[in-house]
Write a structure and sequence with these properties.
- The structure holds two protein chains of two kinds.
- By secondary structure, chain A is of the alpha/beta class.
- The longest helix of chain A is centred in the N-terminal third of the chain and has 38 residues, at 37-74.
- The two termini of chain A are 45 Å apart.
- By secondary structure, chain B is an alpha/beta fold.
- Chain B is built from ten helices and ten strands.
- Chain B has a six-stranded mixed sheet, with helices on both faces.
- In chain B, helix 2 packs parallel to helix 10 and helix 4 runs antiparallel to helix 5 (151-160).
- Chain B starts with a helix and ends with a helix.
- Classes of the chains: A alpha/beta, B alpha/beta.
- Chains A and B meet through strand 2 and helix 2 of A and strand 8, strand 9 and helix 9 of B.
- Strand 2 (30-34) of chain A pairs parallel with strand 8 (232-236) of chain B, so a sheet runs across the interface.
Chain lengths: 722, 301
């Protein structure tokens, strides 16, 4: 305990005054010769002890009165065992929840505004010499300033600029970073304050298991910080969110109509009527639909749209209804519309007769509209070339190359083909009666280090044997997942009478370029039917049988067309860097065939613009923007190119249910922290921890109480003085 | 030669003269009325006629009535006696208390004055008056006589009394009761501080011997309201070694309760034995108190 006015505490010596009066009274007595002694004596005899006690109590009370008064004026502070100078600087680390659930509106504004206001008060209240670090809690932890700073006012200014939109909430990552940072902060007294809405979806993991780890991590620090949880806001019901937009995974060409499925979820317990769902393409309203949303239910809305122009487009869906959280009412996806996909068909068995040539069926399957003289245009443009006439130039200009029953290639073309795959080309290999097994095994497979997924080992199947079928399993590969829906066609319809057995490689490749090898589909005798391997940036897909009707009736089946279309378009579109990602993944734009470095401007969802320089990677200019910490659309604009990236975040934040008081308490206990209801509460706690509590009010109350007590006691002990 | 004025102050003598006039009537009324003798004898007051039975004195036969009725009747008369009054004066130490409000009159002095005036009154009335002074034992006993000059030894005795020693009222009264053979009026002047139970026993014995008892309880106003404020050492007037240093404020309430209890006990006991208990305080003029009491007695008798 310390005193603010220690000298005044000496006033407590005034207790000597009543003591002196008491002693003096006793010594300066009067003598009376008394007659009625028998009455007096009986009274004294019975009450002697009580009289002594009464006198003692009264004396004590009288002595305490000046003591209490003096202590009250001296303003004592209760400091507990830890005493600290009130001006001691601290290291303050504030973890500020900026996940999108904080943008929910409640009485008196959004939770985020309240949280920021609290954070500002905390930061502004630190003593001189304190270092401050504010970490925003989002999909990724983002500091307000890169390093802890000693200028609290700078942090306050930056806090003023904080806006939400940091997506989900990765608490573990944030705590890891917070702990690592606070360990390096400079002051001996460290404070870790977490300001959050403590949403159930986010904090359940801490509550269920990680609390002990968090506590251990804090305990293991050199200087253990004081952990405080500051809950902000309350549960606001009735949120509606767009969970996702399902869009075609394959390459899409201009003019092709495609369906976009918008998933809407109502998190509230009340039905929402007449919610409008708007589809916007590149910011322009295209279509509106009206739905009613059942309580705690999901609804899907379908929109069909055909892009007129190739290029990068943004499709955005918005649900318009009365709900507390705006952020999750919109969802954007980036769509890439292909101009033309050039496919080079290398025919190993050409024929002038219709459908007799090796590549005729596949040609029809790839360009059905052109050959059928439909109005609609094909995405794919094919060029057929005999294997003898294949040149390296032709290889280089193609996007997709199909080797159909090609016996073997010359060395120069083979090298060009390997380089083509390595740079991101797609190669389809179909066998036939003409192929040179040895060349395929040695030049293309080359002991598991080449571009071919597997060597052709032996031709199997005879004309008179019963044909084999493709096993209609659940396909995981994006090209084939289309057929998981039976109505889209059944691969097991086709009968395969002859095929090459492909030997799956047993050891992993020693070539860095050669990555994964997988079997996409099998025959019913367990032989691989379709295999795939990535090589460099490209991919090779290898089939066990022919692409004409010689060994199988697959090309004659209706399923052949979607199979080939899916394989080609999906695989081809997969090979450009993805444009729909989650927060934190870098946005990479590839500018093919440009030698000179380019300057690109990135427009972030928050509206700010950054200029980035492209760099040369494997002959292409690549623009990379890594800090995709906020979900939304990032637009790259270059000299003659515009590329959009849609960054998504986890929608579990949309459920605005918070941890209840009990759970928060449980978490606080498990992590060894404390709670503060508000910044005022926190500052009061801090004051208490730091300075101790001022108790003069209690002393004053005690003083008055004792004054009153003295009067009462005196009255009681000597009822009605004469 | 001692005179009444030695024990009664000059201003009290004045009052007393008035009182004497008053008392003459009062005492006549109350003394003769109260102390009527149950014995029949020669007197002027006729009581009743009764049939003669052999053995009766023939002198008592009413011959006039015999002449009229031819039957023998006896005339019976009321016997009238003089009042035999014994004044018991408490001269114990506690009687010497003298409070600030009693104008320098101690309880004992007050009692002496009261006793003197009573004696004076009685003797003027031709009643016989005796005096017993006592503390823990009888100090002096002056038997009752009716001669006017008997006042002198009484005054004499009253003058020489100095209050001291302890009191043992119960035992003293028993001894006194043994000394007063003929029934009469017993006037007690005391503060009655002592064991009430024992006192009541001796009172009962006196009443049994057909003594009329009047108790003038003389108290100092200080003893009634305990007005002390500062720390005080109380020294016992009867035992020097007995002293207590106390804060009077603390004791006051209990003391007053005790006093009230004591007085109530006395009052109850006295009323049970048909004893007149007259409280007197030394700040009140005794003559007035006395007069008021006597007046009351006359009214109630």
């Amino acid at each position: 305990m310390t005193f603010l006015n220690p000298l005044l505490a000496l006033g407590a010596l005034a207790f000597l005054i009543p003591l002196a009066i008491h002693v003096l009274n006793r010594s300066r007595f009067k003598t009376v010769e008394w007659g009625a002694m028998h009455l007096l004596e009986s009274v004294i005899k019975v009450n002697h002890r009580r009289f002594r006690l009464d006198q003692l109590i009264l004396l004590l009370v009288r002595c305490l009165i000046p003591v209490l008064l003096a202590l009250c004026i001296a303003r004592p502070l209760l400091t507990g065992s830890k005493t600290m100078n009130p001006n001691t600087p601290v290291s303050l680390l504030v973890v500020l929840d900026t996940s999108y659930s904080m943008e929910a509106m409640e009485r008196g504004g959004s939770k985020l505004k309240k949280a920021i206001a609290s954070a500002k008060e905390l930061v502004a209240s630190v003593n001189k010499g304190s270092d401050v670090y504010v970490l925003q809690l989002g999909d990724q932890p983002v500091p307000i300033l890169d390093q802890p700073v000693f200028d609290a006012s700078a942090v306050v200014r930056r806090l003023d600029q904080v806006e939400g939109g940091y997506g989900g909430c990765d608490i573990s990552a944030a705590m890891e970073r917070a702990i690592a940072t606070i360990d390096k902060m400079s002051n001996a007294h460290r404070e870790l304050v977490i300001i959050s809405d403590f949403q159930k979806a986010d904090w359940q993991e801490i509550l269920e298991g990680n609390a002990a780890e968090l506590r251990a991590a804090l305990d293991n620090l050199k200087v253990k910080p004081v952990l405080t949880f500051m809950p902000v806001g309350e549960t606001v019901p009735g949120n509606v969110s767009i969970q996702s937009i399902a869009f075609p995974a394959k390459a899409i060409g201009a003019g092709e109509p495609h369906t976009y499925r918008v998933d809407i979820h109502n998190h509230g317990a009340a039905q929402k009527e007449n919610a409008r769902v708007i589809l916007r393409v590149n910011g322009k309203e295209e279509s509106i639909s009206q739905v009613s949303l059942a309580a705690n239910g999901s609804t899907q809305v379908l929109f069909t749209h055909a892009f007129s122009q190739p290029g990068s487009h943004v499709v955005q869906a918005e649900v318009v209804c009365d709900d507390p959280l705006e952020f999750d009412n919109r969802f954007s996806v980036s769509m890439t519309i292909w101009d033309k996909l050039k496919v080079l068909l290398v025919d190993g068995d050409p024929s002038p007769l219709p459908l007799k040539s090796e590549t005729d069926f596949i040609n029809v399957a790839l360009t059905p509209f052109s050959l059928g003289r439909f109005q609609l245009s094909d995405l794919i443009e094919t060029e057929t070339v005999e294997d003898r006439k294949l040149t390296t130039e032709k290889i280089d200009s193609a996007k997709v190359i199909v080797l159909a029953n090609v016996s073997k290639l010359k060395e120069a073309e083979k090298v060009a083909l390997v380089s083509f795959v390595e740079k991101g080309g797609v190669l389809f290999v179909f066998p036939g009666n003409r192929i040179d097994l040895k060349w395929y095994r040695e030049s293309l497979f080359s002991a598991g280090n080449g571009i071919l997924p597997a060597p052709y080992v032996i031709q199997k199947g005879k004309q008179e044997d019963s044909p084999h079928k493709i096993v209609a399993q659940h396909f995981d590969h994006p090209s084939l997942s289309f057929f998981n829906e039976r109505s889209n066609g059944d691969l097991s319809d086709a009968e395969i009478t002859r095929w090459y057995q492909m030997k799956e490689p047993e050891t992993s490749s020693s070539n860095e370029l050669r990555k994964s090898t997988s079997v996409l589909a099998r025959l019913d005798n367990a032989d691989p039917f379709l295999m795939e391997c990535s090589y460099g940036k490209g991919v090779t897909i290898q089939m066990a049988t022919t692409c004409d009707a010689d060994w199988t009736d697959l090309p004659l089946k209706p399923v052949f067309l979607p199979l080939i279309q899916q394989l080609v378009t999906t695989t081809a579109s997969r090979l450009v860097p993805p444009r729909n990602m989650t927060t934190g993944e870098p946005a990479v734009a590839m500018l093919k065939g440009i030698e000179e470095p380019q300057t690109m401007t990135v427009r972030t969802p928050a509206g700010s613009e950054r200029v980035i320089q492209t760099s040369l990677v494997d002959g292409d200019q690549v623009a990379t923007y890594r800090s995709t910490i906020q979900p939304g659309v990032y637009s790259f604009s270059g000299p003659d190119k515009n590329i959009n990236f849609a960054i998504h975040t986890d929608r579990s934040e949309s459920s605005l249910e918070l941890l209840d008081q009990e759970d928060v308490e449980r978490m606080v206990v498990a992590t060894g922290g404390t709670t503060a209801a508000s910044s005022v509460d926190y500052l009061a706690n801090d004051q208490l921890r730091r300075n101790g509590s001022e108790i003069w009010k209690y002393l004053l109350a005690g003083f008055l109480a004792f004054l009153f007590l003295e009067i009462v006691l005196q009255q009681r002990f000597s009822r009605a003085r004469a | 030669m001692p005179h009444v004025s030695d024990v009664i102050r000059a201003e009290d003598i004045g009052k007393f003269k008035n009182l004497q006039m008053l008392a003459r009537q009062v005492v006549e009324g109350f003394c003769s009325g109260l102390h009527r003798s149950p014995h029949k004898g020669f007197s002027v007051e006729f009581k009743e006629h009764r049939s003669y039975v052999p053995g009766d004195d023939i002198r008592t036969i009413d011959w006039k009535l015999f002449g009229k009725t031819d039957r023998l009747y006896i005339r019976e008369y009321e016997e009238e006696t003089n009042l035999r009054c014994t004044i018991l004066l408490d001269s114990s130490g506690s009687m010497s208390y003298q409070g600030s409000r009693s104008k320098g009159v101690s309880k004992h002095r007050y009692a002496v004055a009261t006793a003197a005036s009573l004696a004076h009154l009685m003797l003027q009335q031709q009643d016989s008056v005796g005096l017993v002074t006592f503390d823990k034992a009888i100090r002096n006993y002056i038997p009752p006589r009716a001669q006017p000059k008997h006042l002198t030894p009484i005054i004499n005795e009253l003058q020489v009394q100095k209050p001291k020693h302890e009191t043992e009222l119960g035992s003293v009264f028993e001894t006194i009761e043994a000394k007063i053979h003929r029934r009469g009026l017993v006037i007690i002047l005391s503060d009655l501080f002592g064991d009430v139970e024992q006192l009541m026993k001796s009172f009962a014995r006196m009443r049994h011997a057909n003594h009329e008892i009047i108790v003038f309880q003389i108290l100092d106003p200080d003893e009634l309201d305990f007005p002390f404020r500062q720390w005080t050492q109380f020294t016992c007037l009867e035992q020097d070694s007995n002293r207590h240093l106390i804060d009077p404020a603390q004791v006051r309430k209990s003391y007053l309760e005790k006093l009230e209890e004591f007085r109530e006990q006395l009052a109850r006991g006295c009323s049970r034995h048909r004893i007149s208990l007259v409280p007197m305080t030394t700040d009140q003029p005794f003559a007035e108190t006395l007069a008021a009491y006597l007046a009351l007695r006359r009214r109630t008798s």
